[in-house]
Write a structure and sequence with these properties.
The chain is mostly helical. The chain contains four helices and no strands. Helix 1 packs across helix 3. It is elongated, with a radius of gyration of 17 Å.
């Protein structure tokens, strides 16, 4: 026996994992690919210990371009801007104002 385990994850957890992977790791994953990360998060929330000397690898093999509708459900509709550097700069500045909270020091 390997000592392994299995668990299930909800669609909501998978969508949250897609958003977290995009935000924190700049990985655009499809739902099936984000499922493994959703399982890891659920496993840790359930009290599973991962030692300081242990490494965890989560394979994310499917691109979010396979299921753009799921990506929109996970993260919301994309911001549409004019294709100019000025418009890009303005959109990034607005995003920074709306997500950065100086009192907390983090977005």
């Amino acid at each position: 026996a390997t000592g392994g385990a299995m668990l299930t994850v909800s669609d909501e957890r998978i969508l949250a994992a897609m958003a977290a992977l995009a935000r924190d790791a700049t990985v655009f994953a499809e739902p099936a690919a984000a499922c493994a990360y959703a399982g890891l998060v659920k496993h840790r929330e359930g009290g599973a210990a991962i030692g300081a000397d242990e490494h965890v690898v989560v394979l994310v093999t499917g691109t979010g371009l396979k299921d753009v509708a799921a990506a929109v459900r996970a993260t919301g509709s994309p911001t549409v801007i004019e294709p100019t550097m000025d418009a890009l700069g303005a959109a990034l500045a607005e995003r920074a104002r709306s997500t950065f909270h100086p009192s907390r020091g983090t977005p």
